[in-house]
Design a protein that fits this description.
The complex is a heterodimer of chains A (about 200) and B (about 450). Chain A has about 200 residues and is an alpha/beta fold. Chain A contains 4 helices and 8 strands. Classes of the chains: A alpha/beta (about 200), B alpha/beta (about 450).
Chain lengths: ~200, ~450
């Protein structure tokens, strides 16, 4: 997470959860307002940004999708590195996906970043007729582990913006992760082309 | 796994991950596997527990070293030339967006028992205590010649055809003494031995130019940059590129075995009793022991310290080159140090490496001149590994094998190997003509 102005935050946000729980769909709904019934496995949504305004601050989310690397338990440590927020997604119509979500929560807790803002999202809330995970179950697990909880639907857009705004609201209160200043290499010409510009909070 | 792929890549070292990324971007269907449960293969960065497990056979490092996860200790330590080939590849593939870099504080050279800052421009040459007054003037003229030299502007060649004139003859024209030649050839042009002296001077001139342009790039004390959290981030970033373009990743795949048809062409890879079909295999030497030969041996000391390397102006990150002639050796020795300023160790801890090509049967003892520069050391690990090169004919078996990582301090040879492999695999030449003059470090 980086402070680039008095009230402007930049925050890396990662998504975790079972294949098919709707991680990419949530991001695409939030960033582009789109939804596809038969979303291909993640291509193209692996790195998106979206800025939201909360109170008197703006938060620019750098959203990292797993790019499918979680499928064979091969997610790289770099994925979690420096994350300010994480959304753990499960499918309310799939019990296994809820069990996997709990494992991701435990893995994140082990990463030891006490300031990480974590959200649990019970996605596909539009499929209430096929529901296998009760709202209360999700809520209870989230409370136990101090996550905040919402049931969402990328299809109907229910609670999708609310989820990201709630994360944005919680961010400025969380202490920024300890990170030294570093630079990103880019081929975009900047006015001062040899300058080193700090991008991270000290 | 029971699918057919265009390419199966074995091993997640940096070279394999760059290739995997490039091939996936080309829309080839790639399966990428590794026997280990971590990314990076030989070029990974270990946390403290992994380091202890590898070298001490126990995963319980003493508590005084601090938290395991704050360590990222490179198994093949190198720095990146700020204007070098790896930076071009990173920008070409847009993998830079996953990485943060910081300039390296200092670049030093060992001369007559002492270390000196490496002078790389005409101005620095005049200030350097490495040379006497008259030699400084001669060196300054040489640097001005290098800076002005343009391939397509014959005026700047001053009548010399550098594709024919040797490096030795070029140095002689400027009247440079052996001492100066030694640091220009080894600390600036980064040659590993003295064979270059009898080869055309153009290569040496281009290397010196790369050094000074890289130095100018970030106005630091060295031409090098280095990623936060260590080099292990690089293979992960390229693996992510591959995954974003549809590459499939499987770690912890034991006993990956190549399967061949009756003509000797590879047709698949078997692991855990399942065979994935493929047209081509790309791998590091450890996956095909019968298709590689040993070409050398690298010896390296990995040291954990509580202080920066003495006489380096308290540099938080630094490189020292010990040219072979200074040590009476055939190959150069390299000292490399990084610290918490690049997030590779907890605050107050420094990781130093001393590496060289082993020349004797007692390789650890060979490192003494480098180790003696470090001052007190808390813990030392010695690593000795064989270097391999492929001996197969890829046109017969469709197996493309990378060379082991050499002990050089930067990535130029690494990227050369990758680009040559890419051309062998695809028949295409990768166009890396990114506009480096427009490339910069910027806010994002």
């Amino acid at each position: 997470m980086a402070t680039t102005g008095t009230n402007h935050l930049q925050a890396k946000l990662v998504l975790l959860g079972d294949m098919g729980a709707g991680k990419s769909s949530l991001v695409l709904r939030f960033v582009k307002g789109q939804f596809f019934e038969y979303q291909e496995s993640t291509i193209g949504a692996a790195f998106l940004t979206q800025t939201v305004a909360v109170n008197d601050a703006t938060v620019k989310f750098e959203i990292w999708d797993t790019a499918g690397q979680e499928r064979y338990h091969s997610l790289a440590p770099m994925y979690y590195r420096g994350a300010a927020a994480a959304i753990i997604v499960y499918d309310i119509s799939n019990l296994d996906s809820f069990a996997r979500a709990k494992k991701w929560v435990q893995e994140l807790l082990q990463q030891g970043n006490a300031n990480l803002v974590m959200a649990l999202a019970g996605n596909k809330a539009d499929l209430s007729s096929k529901r296998k995970v009760e709202t209360e179950e999700g809520k209870a697990y989230a409370d136990e582990n101090q996550l905040f909880f919402m049931e969402t639907s990328a299809k109907t857009a229910q609670n999708v913006n609310e989820l990201f705004y709630e994360i944005a609201r919680k961010l400025p209160k969380a202490q920024p992760a300890q990170q030294p200043a570093g630079m990103v290499l880019t081929d975009r010409p900047t006015g001062d082309r040899f300058a080193i510009k700090s991008t991270c909070c000290a | 796994m029971d699918e057919e792929y265009d390419v199966i890549v074995l091993g997640t070292g940096l070279k394999e991950c760059i290739l995997s990324g490039l091939l996936s971007v080309d829309r080839l269907k790639v399966l990428h596997m590794d026997r280990n449960d971590y990314y990076g293969g030989e070029s990974t960065s270990f946390n403290l527990n992994q380091l202890w497990e590898k070298f001490r056979g126990s995963s319980k490092p003493p508590p005084e070293f601090g938290p395991s996860r704050e360590y990222n200790v490179d198994m093949v330590p190198k720095f990146m030339m700020a204007n070098g080939a790896l930076v071009r590849v990173l920008i070409h593939t847009d993998v830079t967006k996953y990485l943060y870099f910081k300039a390296v504080d200092g670049s030093y050279v060992y001369n007559k028992g002492k270390i000196h800052k490496v002078p790389a421009t005409d101005v620095e040459a005049l200030k350097s205590p490495l040379m006497g007054l008259f030699e400084k003037r001669r060196a300054r003229k040489f640097f001005i010649y290098v800076q002005n030299y343009e391939d397509d502007d014959l005026k700047t060649h001053e009548g010399l055809d550098l594709t024919r004139v040797t490096s030795k003859e070029l140095f002689a024209k400027f009247g440079l003494d052996d001492n100066t030649v030694d640091f220009i050839g080894h600390a600036l042009a980064l040659h590993r031995d003295d064979r270059y002296l009898n080869e055309p001077a153009l290569e040496t001139l281009k290397r010196v130019k790369l050094y000074s342009e890289s130095l100018a790039r970030f106005q630091g004390g060295s031409p090098y940059i280095y990623p936060l959290y260590g080099l292990g981030e690089l293979p992960q970033a390229f693996a992510r590129l591959s995954a974003v373009y549809g590459g499939t990743y499987m770690l912890s795949k034991p006993d990956c075995t190549l399967e061949f048809d009756e003509e000797g062409k590879v047709r698949g890879v078997t692991s855990d009793g399942e065979t994935a079909k493929t047209k081509k295999v790309v791998c590091d030497p450890s996956y095909v022991r019968n298709k590689v030969k040993k070409v050398g041996k690298v010896v390296r000391a990995i040291c954990i310290m509580n202080h920066p390397i003495p006489n380096t102006n308290d540099s938080q990150s630094v490189q020292i080159i010990l040219p072979q002639k200074q040590l009476g050796r055939k190959s150069d020795m390299y000292v490399f140090c990084c610290s918490y300023s690049h997030n590779v160790a907890p605050k107050g801890k420094y990781i130093a490496f001393v590496s060289t090509e082993a020349e004797t049967d007692m390789p650890e003892a060979e490192l003494e001149p480098g180790l003696s520069l470090l001052g007190p050391v808390e813990e030392t690990f010695f690593d000795v590994y064989d270097r391999y090169e492929p001996v197969n004919d890829h046109t017969l078996d469709n197996v493309y094998i990378s060379k082991s990582y050499d002990p050089t301090t930067h990535f130029e040879t690494t990227v050369q190997d990758v680009l040559a492999m890419y051309t062998r695999i695809t028949g295409k030449v990768l166009d890396l003509s990114v506009d480096l003059s427009a490339a910069s470090a910027a806010d994002e």
